TrEMBL record, chains A, B:
Keywords: Aminoacyl-tRNA synthetase, ATP-binding, Cytoplasm, Ligase, Nucleotide-binding, Protein biosynthesis. This is Proline--tRNA ligase. InterPro entries: aa-tRNA-synt_IIb, aa-tRNA-synth_II, aa-tRNA-synth_II/BPL/LPL, Anticodon-bd, Anticodon-bd_dom_sf, Pro-tRNA-ligase_IIa_arc-type, Pro-tRNA_ligase_II_C, Pro-tRNA_synth_II. GO terms for cellular component: aminoacyl-tRNA synthetase multienzyme complex; cytoplasm. Belongs to the class-II aminoacyl-tRNA synthetase family. ProS type 3 subfamily. Homodimer. The gene is proS. It is found in: Cytoplasm. Its EC number is 6.1.1.15. GO terms for biological process: prolyl-tRNA aminoacylation.
Length: 493, 493
């Protein structure tokens, strides 16, 4: 394998090379769509398993709704439709036929035109709320707490592996409630679930906040989000949870009989995270040698590499390694003993470093004599000698330490890259030279936000929840109008 | 809830009512597509988890390939393309725009026509083999053992919930091998995995066999299958494993350098099972009272219903039930204590019977005095009194017994419904009056098979593997030509 371009040299090239060389994903023959390769998919599976557990723990069930949305349903919630209309894949025909002028080739059969076009779901509010209409008559039918694991399609013009692809995998929660309050509680609860998952499991620190009206999900009353900071100083939206008010209930006429016997529209939320998170994972932790994975997400947590000259040495090492493998597995730690003869240990070291395996154990004949092994941490690249005695316990502790330490490092970086500014001069300077989040007072108007966006490409990533709750007020650095709270600006993925 | 139509009265109506009333699935607003509701999806999740485990145990990894197949790739393997061309959803445009004549409505933007149409995958051989081309240079890159969990679309004209829907969920394995022998071993191995899963986990007896050329997967050299028999005497193909030869390697020019230094085309297999299996599950085990689920597949394995007149009784029962719940959970048994006050025990009994919960435990004050509970088996509807003492162990054993007993019953039914015939007269009579599998000698020609199909609607479901291996020969009952082996005919879903 070729050495990666360094992050300093070209961050975006580094990112692409890393994704390709680790075997996580690649571009496909279909414009803008990626192939998620086994190593990338194994990480996604770990994310899915943990999220699914968290969703079920909070009372949600999975279900599955159609891939296609008939155009008349798609357009029912006007803002939502407007928001996605420009990036929709549209199915217009249901049959191919032989091309008479080109033997062996097929053409779309003009006689198989659909009466109504089908939109490949960019998100499922429309199809789900048209279904919920049949499920909800009374308050007794509420709440409905459903999640769906699915693929969605948004016809993006500029795509990047994991970060922005025409098709991506995600989960989308869609809940229905009898009261506004309950729907808001649900919206916030799922934001907390996302924050806990992204911080605790993926080791990525996030800011919880609310989007400005400009950046809101199309059709939402409020979009809550978690925002993360990448190593190159750009922000990445890591998850969103929307309070949809009664917008979809009104669009699809979903009313329920209240306890009091009146009729009311149902309150809604939706929330989602996607394979995009894998891009965030890479850009938060990895380095010029390759991927760095938090142990909780690593498909292989520990790799054992034997170093030997002859079969006798190999056999002795294998005996020790096999025992260690067994002990680690019984602790639920995933481990690989790589005794492949066809490549050198040095090659293996590079390979597992590239792939982000959190701990590497090397065992040579000298180590055995000394009752020890060499342990290398992927995150810090530190090496140490560890006693064979109690090694499984040492490894277990070390993995926990790495999980924490990876988060702490990212958290420190994030904290160092939130800069307070009070003037537009300062704002532009920080944006250009330092990057990161810029914390500044905002007058609350879309006009100010848009002007700044047009002039600098920075957007309001969120109004941090803690700032909304605060009482401090100030002056907008751009408009010089009074401002109720500080927001976070940044350039973003 | 309404009483189900009986199976005798109208089997297909019974089936539909059962799917709807149990809350497993319903038709959606999209022609031919279903909504898989939480109860149905929970069963699918259990199937997925077990299959996924079995695939990984046999060395496979998951990955994800694009939903769309560009037309030029789709048509590359001609037989495959021909087989699916007539039922393809085709994406032709990537944008909608406002309808100027109809405010608030959208139309397809004629300026956003794709240069090349995209087919929504009906199966993924084409997109996957065009990808494998980039992954395979040498024998060292082989085998590739990949599975994908995905949705696929086949534009069926007559659809039925689970059994035949325009969109369905499935898994599709796609493997690449250096030799023909290895590919055939893989094809057969996966057939065995499917048979073990369907029999051992779903309790559905199957016949392992090979398809006749007429019924082969489009693009395969051989299609292995497992065939099951439904209660109404019709067969259902429960899973297929295809030996694809070098057809896709040739279509996509996928060659590899052999150990000997020559270049050869890669050998392929593919194999899949789908949400259709849920239809087979229903039609194998269920009865006029509703669903019957094998314990291994039941989202709720045990339900506990308290029967009480006052709070004092309720509290006493709850104490015992809570302890039982804890014990069952520690054994990995999923249990629900339904102490809902708003409905009567009788209503609950019906509900859980309808939903196929394998064991129902009823506890009343008199039972407590006698140190016992009432246990009802869903499969046999038998009731018994069981001692409270050691009840969790009793339940565990009973669940195992039910799992076996459900399979045995279905197996007995299947055996009773394989009829040997030697004349066409007999064939037609059995087909009309008894149904089931008809075992008869076949001359091996597509002509005979087609004539019989046209005249009776019965098709060759498979050539049982054991018949192929045998040496017995005979005479075709229809053509009176010599025949090498007996095949199974049936009308099929
Ligand atoms: Zn923090
Ligand atoms: Zn059998």
């Amino acid at each position: 394998m070729a050495k990666l371009t360094s992050r300093k040299e070209d961050y975006s090239k580094w990112y692409n090379e890393l994704v390709i060389q680790t075997g996580m994903a690649e571009n496909s023959k279909v414009r803008g769509c990626m192939v998620i390769k086994p190593y990338g998919y194994a990480i996604w599976e770990k994310m899915q398993a943990e999220l699914d557990r968290m969703f079920k723990e909070t009372g949600h069930q999975n279900a599955y709704f159609p891939l296609f949305v008939p155009k008349s349903l798609f357009e029912a919630e006007e803002k939502n439709a407007e928001g996605f209309a420009k990036e929709c894949a549209v199915v217009t025909h249901y049959r191919l036929k032989n091309d008479e002028n080109n033997p062996g080739k097929l053409i779309v059969d003009p006689n198989a035109k659909l009466e109504e076009e089908l939109i490949v779901r960019p998100t499922s509010e429309a199809i789900i709320w048209s279904t919920y209409k049949g499920w909800i008559q009374s308050y007794r039918d509420l709440p409905i707490l459903i999640n769906q694991w699915a693929n969605v399609v948004r016809w993006e013009m500029r795509t990047r592996l994991f970060l922005r692809t025409a098709e991506f995998l995600w989960q989308e929660g869609h809940t229905a409630h009898a009261t506004k309050e309950e729907a808001i509680v649900e919206t916030k609860q799922m934001l907390d679930v996302y924050a806990d998952f992204v911080e605790g499991f993926m080791g990525i620190p996030v800011v919880k906040g609310v989007k400005s009206a400009n950046e809101r999900f199309a059709g939402a009353e409020d979009t809550y989000c978690i925002e993360a900071l990448m190593q190159d100083g750009k922000a990445l939206q890591a998850g969103t949870s929307h309070f949809l008010g009664q917008n979809f209930a009104k669009a699809f006429d979903v009313k329920f009989a209240t306890k009091e016997g009146t009729l009311d529209y149902v309150w809604a939320t939706s929330w989602g995270v996607s394979t995009r998170l894998i891009g965030a994972l890479i850009m938060t932790h990895s380095d010029d040698n390759g991927l760095v994975l938090p142990p909780k997400l690593a498909p292989i947590q520990v790799v054992i590499v034997p170093i030997y000259r002859d079969d006798e040495q190999k056999n002795k090492i294998s005996e020790v390694a096999d025992k260690l493998v067994k002990e680690l597995k019984s602790k639920g730690i995933s481990v690989k003993f790589d005794d492949d003869d066809t490549v050198k240990p040095g090659w293996k070291f590079n390979e597992y470093e590239l792939k982000g395996v959190p701990l590497r154990i090397a065992i040579g004949p000298r180590d055995l004599e000394n009752g020890q092994v060499e342990m290398a941490r992927r995150d810090t690249l530190e090496k140490s000698f560890e006693k064979l005695d109690g090694l499984a316990d040492t490894i277990e502790l070390k993995l926990e330490e790495i999980q924490t330490s990876i988060f702490d490092r990212a958290h420190k970086f994030r904290e160092e890259n939130i800069t307070e500014v009070t003037s537009y001069e300062e704002f532009k300077e920080v944006l250009e030279n330092k990057g990161g989040f810029i914390s500044a007072y905002w007058d609350g108007t879309p006009e100010t936000e848009e002007k700044i966006k047009n002039e600098t490409k920075a957007t309001i990533r969120c109004i941090p929840l803690e700032n909304i709750e605060g009482t401090e007020t100030g002056t907008d650095f751009y408009s010089e109008k009074p401002a109720k709270f500080k927001v976070l600006y940044a350039k973003a993925y």
